Amino acid sequence: MGDTRRVVDGERRATARPLRPAAPPDDGTPPIPRPRREGDALPPEPPAEPGANPQPEPSAKPDGGSGASGREQTGSGPDATAGAAAGGGGRRRRMPFAHAVRTRPREFAVGAVRATRTWSRRPGGRTTLPALFLLALVAAAATAGAVIVPAAVGRPEPVAEATPSQSVPQTAAAPATPPLPELTGLPGTAAPTGTPLPGATTAPVLPTGRPADALAGWAQRVSPVTGIPAVALQAYAYAELVLAQTNRACQLSWTTLAAIGYVESRHGAANGATLQADGRALPEIKGEPLDGQGGRSRILDTDQGALDGDRVHDRALGPMQFIPTTWQEIGADADGDGVKNPHDIDDAALAAGLYLCKGGRNMTIPGDWWGAILSYNDVRRYAQAVFDKADEYGRLSRNVR
Q: Which end of the chain is more exposed for a tag (fewer CB within 10 A), N or C?
């Protein structure tokens, strides 16, 4: 076949096959090449141009192999015989190209799953797989922490206030209080030296026996605007200063004590009594018997009438209206006369402050403030009345110095 190109497979005996013509499909789509298989006939090659000298193509394989089949090919003709004579060496195999091997994604995934399952059943897989799972959990936790923790640290958290008692309105906080002049000296000690008050150049001259008189100048300025007698005002303010030195965490204000004194006895004026210059209320103030009548609690006698003169029922005593059992527990000597007297407003005001500050209360926290007032008298209307009066005293005295 002089007009057909022959392919030499590099063997001593050469075979030649005609190349197949490339015929497009009937629907007009381009032909799809497919891998050449053993036994396929080569398509005939177009005739060579006149004068051209057909040359055998060099080998396309790195090892010298050609594109012919690995099996021995038989052919006839002088060119095949010449090619066989010119070729040297033994028979060569044709290796398939890598791009000719097609693997579907689904088959690849199924194979990977089967290989992983088989590996996990081996001893090495049983040990390694849990370790990889644990490592993934640790990495996920570290990633979440790196994102969540900085965001939480950078964001300021709101401060939760204590919730007032459910029996009291929660619409207001503890009343604000004006500042007091500093004072040295505590109950039961010698009379204080008296630090200069605002506007004074020297320490005031103090009478013997009543430390609260050190606040006389301040009380004279605050009393007209609040309507509180100066003697009672000194007792309330002195109790605040004593608690500021002995129980700083409580932060009780004199306005709260003054509000209780007003609601309980109108600052020692109940039943026609009058506060004396030394702080005692005369005549002594004693409440109605606590016999359970008229909305009062029922409390049988606890002191054999030693404080209230009643051997049947207890009675509330003094300007701050303590019952005998509470006074025996919390009574104080604020004026340093050696007697704990519930009818002395100095002693009674300090004892009331000690009672309100029990249990580690902070009276600047609304919840603690309401809880303290309700522990004094567990009546909603009573607590609201104390709040309103304390708030009024704070507003009236705010600008007084």
A: C
CB-based burial label for 304 (10 Å; 0-12, 13-18, 19+): exposed
Report the distance separating Cα 23 and Cα 321, nearest Å. Answer: 120
DSSP-based helix, strand, coil % in the chain, nearest 5: 40, 5, 55
Amino acid at 168: V
Mapped onto helix, strand or coil, the DSSP state of residue 84 is helix
CB 4 within 8 A of CB 77: no
- Side-chain-side CA neighbours of 214 within 13 Å: the count stands at 28
Alpha carbons 33 and 298: distance in angstroms, whole number: 110
- The radius of gyration of the chain from alpha carbons, rounded to an integer in Å, stands at 54
pLDDT tens digit string along 245-296? 999 999 999 999 999 999 999 999 999 999 999 999 999 999 999 999 988 8
The residue with tokens 């567990």 is 378
Here the tokens at position 302 are 């606890």
Looking at residues 23-38, what average pLDDT do you find? 58
DSSP for 46-81? PPPPTT----PPPP-STTS--SS-SSPP---SHHHH
* Cβ atoms of 229 and 261 closer than 8 Å: no
Give the pair of three-digit tokens for residue 142: 């570290």
Is 171:384 a contact under the CB 8 Å cutoff? no
3 state DSSP class of 298: strand
Residues 6+ apart with CB under 8 A from 386: 256, 259, 260, 263, 373
> In this structure, how many other beta carbons lie within 10 angstroms of the beta carbon of residue 92?
18
Q: What would the pLDDT profile of 71-107 be if each residue is shown by its tens digit?
A: 444 444 444 444 444 444 556 666 555 444 555 667 7
- Our CA angle for 89, 44, 1, nearest 5°, is 70
Beta bridge partners of 313: 300
* C-alpha to C-alpha distances, 39 to 17, 72, 153, 259, 295, nearest whole angstrom: 11, 11, 76, 116, 119
Three-state DSSP class for residue 281? strand
Whole-angstrom distance, CA of residue 236 vs CA of residue 226: 13
Three-class secondary structure of residue 375 per DSSP? helix
Phi, psi of 71 (to 5 degrees): -75, 155
